[in-house]
Design goal:
Number of domains: 1
Number of helices: 4
Structural class: mainly alpha
Protein name: DUF5658 domain-containing protein
Order of helices and strands: EEHHHH
Radius of gyration: 16 Å
Keywords: Membrane, Transmembrane, Transmembrane helix
Helix content: 55-70%
Distance between the termini: 41 Å
Number of strands: 2
Organism: Natronococcus occultus SP4
Length: 119
């Protein structure tokens, strides 16, 4: 399967990484992780460990958490855009696995108060 080049803004061609299903899974997991990271700042028993997210929170308050998450997603999409196929699918697939682990840990932490991968 080859990537479909889509006309973008100002004549820039977009070359989205991976399959549509893989990209959809990435954005679903990314969204859940973004919500969980935001909730970490609202509950007393969870702490956000990512220093970049913490910095954005300190600068912009709760709005900084989605800003940091958008930066992460943009970085993944940009890297996938510049990788050739099938490496881009492998990269996005690896990001899906990473986000799956993070989301599982974060959701369990928020629901139970105890992280399975606790530090």
């Amino acid at each position: 399967m080859t990537n479909v080049r889509t006309p973008g803004i100002d004549g820039i061609d977009l070359d989205p990484p991976g399959s549509i299903g893989m990209r959809a899974m990435f954005f679903v997991l990314w969204g859940i992780d973004m919500v969980a990271a935001t909730l970490f700042f609202l509950v007393p028993y969870a702490t956000e460990l990512n220093p970049v997210t913490v910095w954005f929170y300190e600068q912009f308050g709760l709005g900084g958490v989605p800003i940091a998450a958008i930066c992460y997603a943009g970085l993944v999409v940009a890297i996938g855009h510049y990788l050739s196929e099938p490496i881009d699918r492998r990269f996005v697939g690896a990001m899906v696995v990473v986000y799956f682990v993070l989301v599982t840990n974060n959701v369990v932490l928020l629901l139970s108060g105890d992280a399975p991968l606790g530090v």
